[in-house]
From TrEMBL, chain B:
Residues 625-656 are annotated as: Disordered. It comes from Hevea brasiliensis. Residues 40-596 form the Clathrin/coatomer adaptor adaptin-like N-terminal domain. It comes from the Eukaryota. Keywords: Membrane, Protein transport, Transmembrane, Transmembrane helix, Transport. InterPro entries: AP_beta (IPR026739), ARM-like (IPR011989), ARM-type_fold (IPR016024), Clathrin/coatomer_adapt-like_N (IPR002553). The lineage of its organism: Eukaryota, Viridiplantae, Streptophyta, Embryophyta, Tracheophyta. This is Clathrin/coatomer adaptor adaptin-like N-terminal domain-containing protein. The chain crosses the membrane at residues 699-721. It is found in: Endomembrane system. Belongs to the adaptor complexes large subunit family.
Length: 341, 815
């Protein structure tokens, strides 16, 4: 078995379990051990993956939910094993059950982007790219055939698709044509490279002399994306040669964890002043100056904007059902966003 | 996704967990034995049976052996409730091998279930039955699998395919043909879901039965995009192996250009579908064809299998025995495989992408390989474990074809959340793909990495700079400057630098500098000078050792270094006793390279034994001083020189006369010879005569301890003739030479020792020239290592008396 196959499968198991148990940790696994056993039995057979499609699994083994929990408390028993084989196992679209009916047909498309950036010690933007996902949440009657197109597909550097996407229309016209699974799923992921602008700057300054180090960190908006940037955090590991640190900020909260991780939560940048963090750090005895410098990891979230600039042109349903509600959203958050000092 | 484990475990507080646990099976897990399980199993209510089975499952999960419930549990196989069935199956599979007899009791109800109208019941029955793994029931299972392989339900057929490897594991020799037949049936199934599972069965049951694949190759290719992802991975591998087995490597593909060259014939049969190199008789082509056949067989059979049994001849695949090459453009089979795997490069499953990329790497003409680059790079944005696997693969690709990844160097820039292994791999890849256009950005990145808090990674970054400099000599000067700046950094050089991995960085800096200088020593003279000057501030022993080595290696370089040498050596001699072992050894090494005098002659003429020379084993570097046993050692030394009328040189020796009575550690120079085993008999011959014991260690034979005499030194230049890597044999002739020149150039003593090994003959000859009495003495010793040497001596001298005298002495010395 190729190593990646094993790793990919384990990731899939982790995804399914955390989806079922709403999280993944030892206690949750213990508390739901029967479901975990049943799921594993269904997902792997003799060392080879059997059924990994979440939608089919959900029909075979129903996830624990409030209703079933209440039922089990009241009646003392409940079965989470389905009596019939999901129809999808036989269909040519194995990710979708055939007989779905909704009173309200709706489909939501989310562009969820993560920005990866590296700013080197000279303050130069070395690398900036977007890793994005098109997440679709569809509730449509029957077997709908959807097409989704972008106004500027040429900016996409590379793409990966959910199995439901047909390759031909994308190859020839960059159009996504697909029969969606029911509910929430990741339609495609994409990468946009060589971006030139970042929304937030972080300016670290470290000066050290005679066994102490002064740190000054400023965070501000560089290119306003037009929407509110919130959940801004700056994290960094204090270098191992630092004995103690006394850090204060004029905005937000600074926390130093026991593993020398320092977290500065800013949330939103106030209008009247630039958030800055400053303080002194005491170096190990015998050390005059700091020689290794921390790397600052920036976190932020912007609702309503896809920083890559990718735009959805239109979403169409081939066989028109009465009243299809369509919704589009976009958001960007920081991915691996690093500022070296 | 895995980080969830830690994070949520921490954040979920106790109080909220209690709330969450209501309605789950937590109470069963916490105390599975708080009620009597046995009566529950016999209950007539399904819910009670269920509870009992869950309790048993909890006990299994906690590591208890509950196999004693087996008979009671087996009875419940017949239950109509699917949940009870499922739980019973879980239990059965766990203990069936342990309780085979009782397990047989369940077979009847399995067979009944196989005829059930619900496909889910049929599939589960088959899965469990095949999972019991008992030889006794294997024929029954085989019949069941055969029946299920023709079942109307896709899911049941898929489970039938999955049951085949389980049967195969039981090694049923007599049924193997039936099993393979079923594999064939399932492979040609019209549902893609079944084909994927059948491919997996094919791989474990009969991976080399290509006729099964050949029957429906085209259809398998076409159905590939619709097969579920796990099946795709396996099926891609099978189709690739089949295509290579059937058609050989593709001409113009990277695999082909790496392992074989196009024969002259290939030009005319450009449109030919297949062609074989069999008819070519030239040696070169034969070799190529062998290589190619080896490579393709590796692919056909899988490398592990192929290498493990490469010794015996291949019977089964004689039809594929000859290396074949095919043209990718004209071969339909290859074309369709490439076409059908192309969209898989966009798959959501990284393993599928990698498998598809592998097909293109092997099959596609060189110029089209670049289509796999972007999908591969996209895989880097997945979990860190798969990132590592992908990077390993990229590294292999990049080594074979650096130009592929060269434009994408930014993707290999390191982020702090990478694990150390990933960082190291990325560095290696960056070195491989660096080009003249990208190197400046890469170098800038490297400089950032050097300040990384992870010091071992910083050291790796420094090493990477050294590697890049060797690859791109044009940049060497820039790199050197950067590295030199590092050595000047206060922290690296101070006392503090010896702890906390800083030492490692410094040593790596110097190693990189060394490797850069080695490429073009004349241009980097100043660097050596600078480093030698910084000796005083650099305290890390390994770093000092490297600088001292460079000092010795380049002692003839340029004009300034030769003038510095004496001072530096004096400095080193005085600090010798406080140095670490490795530094001491390098000081010795350098001294030999720099100062030259014939130790053999000295030994004889100077009556060294009186001076208290002792041979030491270098393994223990402490200097042993033996005081001269006989009196007036140095006076006899100088007198012997004057008696041999080499008066002008005696001045250098006489300076020691005042010291030699009281020899101290600091005054000692250690001399060692870097000689190997071939030289050992010779040294032994010389020294044993004098009553010395010669210690032998792997690289260094002997260490002599001399009183500190201003400039009496020894040079042993030893050229080990592992000349060029082109020839695979170790060289036949190695030569080493004693060139002995005293400072004042009053006489030149040259010993040339030629030694021929493998033929085990040894040739030794020496010339001694004297200014005062011009004469040439040639000593030749010939013989095999283990046998006594034949020594012949010739002296050419104008003054006959002196010549005869000298000859006499040498003969005395040697005999």
């Amino acid at each position: 078995m190729p190593p990646l196959m094993a790793i990919e499968f384990l990731c899939r198991v982790a995804d399914v379990l955390s989806d079922y148990l709403e999280g993944l940790n030892e206690d949750l696994i213990k508390d739901n051990f029967v479901i975990v056993y049943e799921l594993l039995d269904e997902m792997i057979d003799n060392g080879f993956p059997l059924t990994t499609e979440p939608n089919i699994l959900r029909e075979m083994i129903s996830p624990p939910n409030i209703v079933s929990k209440m039922l089990s408390v009241v009646t003392g028993n409940s079965s989470n094993v389905s009596d019939t084989l999901p129809g999808a196992t036989a269909s040519c679209v194995p990710w979708r059950t055939t007989d779905i009916k909704y009173a309200n047909n709706e489909v939501y498309v989310d562009l969820v982007e993560e920005m990866d950036a590296i700013i080197n010690r000279d303050g130069v933007l070395v690398k900036c790219e977007i890793y994005g996902e098109v997440q679709v949440n569809s509730h449509i009657t029957g077997v709908p055939d959807l097409t989704l197109s972008f106004t500027n597909p040429s900016i996409l550097d590379d793409v990966r698709f959910h199995p439901c996407v047909r390759f031909r229309p994308w190859e020839s016209h960059q159009i996504l044509s697909f029969v969606p699974p029911d509910g929430q799923f990741k339609l495609m992921s994409y990468r946009v490279k060589m971006l030139k602008s970042i929304p937030i700057y972080v300016k670290p300054q470290l000066t050290s002399d005679a066994g102490t180090c002064r740190i000054n960190l400023m965070v501000g908006i560089k290119n306003d994306p037009g929407k509110m940037i919130d959940s801004i955090t700056v994290q960094f590991h204090l270098p191992p040669s630092i004995l103690s640190a006394d850090l204060t900020s004029n905005h937000g909260v600074v926390n130093i964890l026991s593993n020398k991780m320092c977290i500065w939560s800013i949330d939103r940048i106030p209008k009247d002043r630039t958030p800055s963090l400053s303080g002194t750090m005491v170096l190990e005895t015998g050390l005059e100056r700091l020689h290794v410098f921390p790397i600052f990891q920036l976190g932020f979230r912007i609702q309503g904007v896809a920083l890559s600039g990718l735009q959805i042109d239109k979403l169409e349903l081939k066989v028109v059902v009465n009243r299809l509600y369509k919704g589009f959203r976009a958001s960007t958050r920081a991915g691996l966003y690093e500022v070296r000092s | 996704m895995f980080p969830h484990f830690g994070a949520t475990a921490d954040t979920l507080s106790k109080a909220s967990t209690i709330m969450f646990r209501i309605g789950t099976d937590a109470h069963l897990y916490d105390d599975p034995e708080d009620v009597n399980i046995a009566p529950l199993l016999d209950s007539k209510f399904d819910s009670e049976k269920c509870e009992a089975l869950k309790r048993l499952l909890a006990l299994i999960a906690q590591g208890f052996d509950v196999s004693n419930f087996f008979p009671q549990v087996v009875k419940n196989v017949a239950s109509q409730s699917l949940e009870v069935k499922k739980l019973v199956y879980l239990y059965l599979l766990h203990y069936a091998e342990k309780r085979p007899n009782e397990a047989l009791l369940s077979i009847n109800s399995f067979q009944k279930d196989l005829g059930d109208t619900n496909p889910l019941v049929r599939a589960w029955a088959l899965r469990t039955m095949a999972g019991i793994r008992l030889h006794v029931i294997a024929p029954l299972v085989l019949v069941a699998v055969g029946k299920c392989a023709r079942d109307p339900s896709v899911y049941v057929r898929k489970c039938a395919a999955n049951a085949l490897p389980k049967l195969h594991d039981l090694q049923l020799e007599e049924h193997s043909s039936t099993i393979e037949e079923i594999v064939g049936i399932l492979l040609s199934d019209h549902s893609p879901g079944v084909v994927g599972a059948a491919a997996a069965a094919f791989n474990s049951v009969c991976p080399n039965n290509y006729s099964l694949v050949g029957r429906s190759y085209k259809r398998l290719c076409e159905v590939l995009p619709d097969v579920e992802e796990w099946g795709q991975i396996v099926l891609i591998g099978i189709l690739l192996r089949y295509a290579i087995a059937r058609h050989g490597l593709v001409k113009k593909s990277i695999m082909f250009s790496l392992h074989g060259k196009e024969s002259p014939q290939s030009e005319k049969d450009g449109l030919d579908v297949e062609f074989s190199l069999e008819k070519d008789s030239s040696m070169d082509l034969k070799f190529n064809s062998e290589m190619a056949s080896m490579v393709s067989r590796c692919y056909i059979e899988g490398p592990d299998e192929y290498l493990s049994r490469s010794s015996y001849t291949n019977r089964i695949f004689s039809e594929f025995h000859n290396a074949k090459f095919t043209s990718g453009k004209s071969n339909d089979d290859v074309k369709i495989l490439l076409q059908c795997t192309l969209p898989l490069l966009w798959s959501n499953n990284s393993a599928v992408v990698l498998a598809a990329a592998g097909v293109h790497w092997i099959m596609v003409p060189c110029e089209d390989v670049k289509r796999i680059v972007k999908p591969l790079l996209f895989l880097l944005r997945s979990s860190s474990t798969s990132k590592y696997v992908v990077l390993c693969n990229i590294q292999v690709f990049a080594k074979a074809m650096p130009s592929l990844f060269a434009p994408h160097f930014e993707d290999f820039f390191i982020i702090s959340s990478d694990s150390y292994q990933i960082k190291a791999l990325k560095l290696e890849i960056l070195c491989t793909i660096a080009t003249e256009s990208s190197i400046s950005s890469i170098f800038k990145e490297f400089q950032d990495y050097i300040q990384d808090p992870d010091r071992s990674f910083a050291a790796d970054a420094v090493a990477a700079i050294g590697l890049c400099a060797q690859k791109l000599p044009k940049m060497a000067i820039t790199f050197l400057e950067g590295l030199l700046a590092l050595t000047r950094q206060e922290l690296l050089t101070t006392e503090f630098g010896s702890i906390e991995g800083e030492a490692g960085v410094l040593v790596q800096v110097l190693t990189s500098i060394k490797s850069i200088i080695k490429q073009d020593p004349p241009n980097h003279e100043k660097v050596v000078i600078q480093l030698v000057r910084s000796l005083d501030s650099i305290k890390v022993p390994a770093a000092r050792a490297i600088i001292i080595w460079m000092m010795g290696e380049y002692n003839n370089l340029g004009e300034i270094i030769p003038r510095m040498v004496t001072t530096v050596l004096q400095y080193l001699a005085w600090s010798f006793s406080s140095e670490a072992l490795e530094t001491k050894l390098q000081i010795l090494n350098t001294t030999f390279k720099v100062c030259q005098i014939a130790v053999l002659v000295l030994l004889k003429w100077g009556k060294i034994n009186c001076c208290g020379i002792k041979l030491l084993n270098v393994q223990s570097p402490s200097i042993e001083i033996s005081k001269s046993s006989s009196s007036s050692s140095s006076s006899s030394l100088s007198s012997s020189y004057s008696s041999s009328k080499l008066t002008s040189s005696s001045s250098s020796f006489s300076s020691s006369s005042s010291r030699s009575e009281e020899v101290r550690v600091d005054d000692a120079f250690l001399f060692c010879c870097d000689v190997d085993a071939t030289f050992f008999p010779l040294l032994n011959l010389v020294f044993r005569k004098k009553g010395f014991s010669v210690a032998y260690s792997e690289n260094i034979v002997a260490t002599f301890c001399f009183p500190f005499i201003s400039l009496i030194c020894l040079k042993v230049v030893y050229y080990l003739g592992v000349s060029k890597a082109q020839s695979k044999e170790i060289t036949i002739c190695s030569r080493f030479k004693f060139k002995t020149v005293s400072r004042q150039l009053t006489f030149i003593d040259t010993f040339n020792v030629q030694c021929i090994y493998l033929s085990a003959a040894m040739l030794y000859y020496s010339e001694i020239l004297s200014n005062a009495f011009p004469c040439l003495i040639t000593i030749t010793a010939e013989g095999k290592c283990i046998e006594p040497l034949n020594v012949s001596i010739k002296v050419n001298c104008e003054e006959t008396v002196f010549g005869l005298n000298l000859l006499n002495r040498i003969v005395n010395f040697l005999s």
